[in-house]
Amino acid sequence: MNEGTLQGEARFRRRAIKVDEAMRLVMEALELGRQESVPLWEAAGRRLAEAVSATTDWPPFARSGMDGFAVRSADTALASPGAPATLRIAATVAAGALASADVAPGTAVRIMTGGAVPPGADAVVMLEQTTDAVVDGQPAVLVKRTAEPGQNIAPRGEEFRCGSVFAGPGELLRPGHAALLGTFGYAHVPVYARPRVAVLATGAELLPVEAPLAPGRIRDSNSAMVAALVAQHGGVPVLLGRVPDEPGAAAQAIVDALQQCDLIITTGGVSVGDYDVMASLLSFLATDHPAGKEASAASFASAAQTAAKPGLLPQDSRLLFNKAAMRPGAPTSAAVLSGKLLLALSGNPGACFVGFELFAKPALQRLQGATPEQAMPKQVTAQLAGSFTKGSPHERFVRARLYTENAVLCAAPLGFGKSSMMASIPEADGLIRIKAGSEGAVEGDIVDVIVL
Ligand SMILES: Nc1nc2c(c(=O)[nH]1)N[C@H]1C(S)=C(S)[C@@H](COP(=O)(O)OP(=O)(O)OC[C@H]3O[C@@H](n4cnc5c(N)ncnc54)[C@H](O)[C@@H]3O)O[C@H]1N2
Ligand code: MOO
Ligand SMILES: [Mg+2]
């Protein structure tokens, strides 16, 4: 593939699809991700891959809820402060031990919180409601009140019956689940694996972060941002660095990424410029490509020098979209390559950020076990604080700060919000959706906002 064809393919006709449709296509293209077993200590924050159930009744034995005395409630039926019941102390039981004697009529067992209630007892009287005594030279206790049957005892199986399911596949594990998993002996937990996400920057102008600036060049900031977003949303970023706008290099990097990653994110080179390498590579999947789908697929394969890896492409490969009716990020593209999702985000940092939130974040959630509904961006309505005009007919995603005033959620558009700008990205709490076809929105309007 020479520069001439690259130019021709990049200019290949593209049809913009609505953002909601694009998000749906991405979601439909994804299967649930890989599963693995992780130590309990790492399980919180992951989604479960299999149902987990109680492996015993819980509590596993009748437990005392107080420090005090295990008694037969009938022995205390007539007790009062003036005429306490006198019970001989038959044994003492700490948590973790079993009493050496049962509670026979006229006796009590001294018991600590968490101790197993001995046979015979049906109530625990708290220490504060008793007085120590000695009767016939034997230790005894005076109980000054009637004990109700069951008082201060957690019966066996009160919370869980053995075998009952307490969390199902796809459920997001919270610290409370960790407590239950620990209780029921799950030292390892079946969860969805953290997806490995290839992060590849395209563009001959890009320098590594550590390099001094040179005329006309800039440092690659998208890789760092995308890697941070991937990690924030549960994935493992695999940094593939930068490739120049050269189809062979880009295709080879992508073919390598397919072998070690679950999802591929590229940035840059998706527009119609002479050197927009991703647009050119993806055009091979378009069914109405001038050269024909097969011919252009072959050109991708040869660009990637995949001869040594037969079968990797173009099986199970298709274009999902190569233009979305949105700004920023109109040229954002997505494809399935060898069964894996490739998201080609715009190089402009603002558009790259928005593209990640709309497409990559949901994809990461889905790969980690979320249902399509759970995976989609969380959207709320808010009152627009400040007006916003727009020129293009496309739907607009405006970086915004969110705050509440008089119990109303407000969204204030941030400055420096152009596609090429990044100053407002760190401050953004949400993306205001300004409807397609509108000329904008005015202060006080109720708008949809994607919460970041
Ligand atoms: N004639 C047209 N020109 C452009 C159109 C159009 O429709 N017709 N679309 C514009 C829109 S909208 C966008 S968005 C950009 C998309 O550009 P690309 O995705 O092709 O990205 P590049 O051309 O590679 O770079 C754009 C811009 O971003 C900088 N960049 C790229 N990669 C990085 C990186 N890793 N870190 C930091 N900055 C990066 C790059 O230097 C450019 O300044 O196209 C418009 N053009
Ligand atoms: O679609 Mo672009 O990100 O507006 O400049
Ligand atoms: Mg470009």
From TrEMBL:
Keywords, comma-separated and alphabetical: Magnesium, Metal-binding, Molybdenum, Molybdenum cofactor biosynthesis, Transferase
Domain of life: Bacteria
Pathway(s) of this molecule: Cofactor biosynthesis; molybdopterin biosynthesis
Cofactor requirements of the protein: Mg(2+)
GO biological process, one term: Mo-molybdopterin cofactor biosynthetic process
One Gene Ontology CC term in the entry: cytosol
Protein name as annotated: Molybdopterin molybdenumtransferase
Organism: Paenibacillus sacheonensis
